[in-house]
Design a protein that fits this description.
Blueprint (H helix, E strand, L loop, with lengths): L10 H6 L1 H12 L13 H5 L5 H11 L3 H12 L6 H6 L3 H12 L3 H13 L2 E3 H8 L2 H13 L3 E3 L6 E4 L2 H10 L2 H16 L1
Antiparallel strand pairs: 1-3, 2-3
Helix pairs in contact: 4-5, 8-10, 8-11, 8-12, 9-12
Length: about 200
């Protein structure tokens, strides 16, 4: 009798845990094992779940196609139209807020601070601007690397020196969680950096 085992793993978490890396390594060395890299759902996939293409495009932009985020947001959209991203943000389920919060907890304090600045700049940002605003190129580079390894950011292959948040929801929740005084301070730092 043949048996099949299915393991689900986040590669960013495996890199952080020697135990997970060891277990996954052993499984991969077994005969007949293989892996499948999953990606986010695209607009066409999401549109199959919704009555209108515009909502599918908006949800794809907000979630990056993340099936968990989509499963939590679809009931809000299906219940009736949500006018604007801010209205949707106000109705975000706790489950999404908690999942993003847990994901951010695994980052260093430096990376969290760099992500805070990046969130103030916007969904997409230039590394040079971020570095000028923060004033420490080494910290920015290390933090961007850590955040990209954790699948929170991705580099823009078509635009070297630019990054973007993988999920707009992550950027928006980071931004909205900032203390208003700190947010204003970061806006000032970024404005001064833009003037240079």
């Amino acid at each position: 009798e043949r048996q099949m085992f299915v393991l689900a793993d986040r590669d960013a978490e495996t890199r952080k845990s020697a135990f997970h890396a060891e277990v996954l390594g052993r499984v991969c060395r077994l005969g007949g094992s293989g892996g499948i890299a999953l990606r986010g759902l695209d607009v066409e996939d999401i549109a199959r779940l919704l009555p209108n293409q515009e909502e599918a495009s908006r949800l794809r932009e907000l979630t990056g196609g993340n099936p968990f985020f989509l499963s939590q947001l679809l009931p809000l959209v299906i219940d009736g139209p949500v006018s604007g991203a801010s209205a949707l943000r106000e109705r975000l389920p706790f489950s999404i807020r908690e999942a993003i919060g847990r994901h951010l907890e695994g980052l260093s304090e430096d990376s969290k601070r760099v992500l805070d600045y990046a969130a103030v700049i916007g969904r997409e940002f230039e590394v040079n601007l971020l570095t000028l605003a923060i004033g420490d190129a080494v910290r920015v580079e290390r933090s961007l690397s850590e955040s990209a390894s954790s699948r929170l950011l991705e580099s823009r292959r078509s635009s070297p020196g630019q990054f973007r948040f993988v999920h707009a929801l992550v950027r928006e929740l980071i931004y909205e969680s900032l203390d208003p005084g700190i947010r204003a301070e970061y806006h000032r730092s970024i404005a001064l950096a833009l003037e240079r």
